[in-house]
Design goal:
With 153 residues, this protein is α+β, with helices and mostly antiparallel strands. Helix content is 24%, strand content 24%. α1 (34-45) crosses α3.
Length: 153
């Protein structure tokens, strides 16, 4: 696993780390059922885009035929989890169509602890400095931010 980038999404006071299968609220892990977690990843990764019920069913239950009530149960579970942490209204229902994740989402990546560290060849005796604190910050991009405007525009 060495050298891999940890990918994450942030919205409100939550951090969603798909590879770690982890949802954090203010840094504390949140209990979430596996299918509800997968559904949250799909919704968050398509933030502010309508996902039809069929798209969600195919994304979460890839090799299984399930009824729509499984989708409804997991959406309900996600809403309870998010609203219990003060984040109501993050999942919008588009009647007869599907669902949309409406929170502002930041997408980022964070290197593993040792990634990017300067390594000297073993035969050199002098010490070389490691990465600065700035090199260790996670990279974050804001997906819902307005595009920059030019001067006078």
């Amino acid at each position: 696993m060495s050298g891999q980038i940890k990918h994450f999404y942030e919205f409100g006071r939550f951090r969603l780390a798909p590879e770690e299968r982890l949802l954090l609220h203010d840094g504390t892990p949140v209990a979430i059922a596996p299918k509800a977690f997968e559904m949250l990843v799909v919704l968050v990764s398509h933030d502010n885009h309508l996902l039809t019920k069929e798209e969600l069913l195919k994304s979460v239950w890839t090799d299984t035929i399930v009824e729509e009530n499984n989708l409804d149960k997991n959406i309900s579970s996600l809403r309870k989890i998010l609203s219990g942490a003060g984040a109501e209204g993050y999942i919008e229902t588009v009647r007869r169509r599907g669902y949309r994740f409406t929170a502002d989402v930041s997408e980022g990546r964070e290197p593993e602890e040792n990634e990017g560290a300067f390594r000297s060849p073993p035969n050199l005796e002098r010490q070389t400095p490691g990465p600065s604190a700035l090199d260790q910050r996670p990279l974050v991009t804001h997906r819902n931010a307005d595009p920059p405007t030019g001067v006078g525009g």
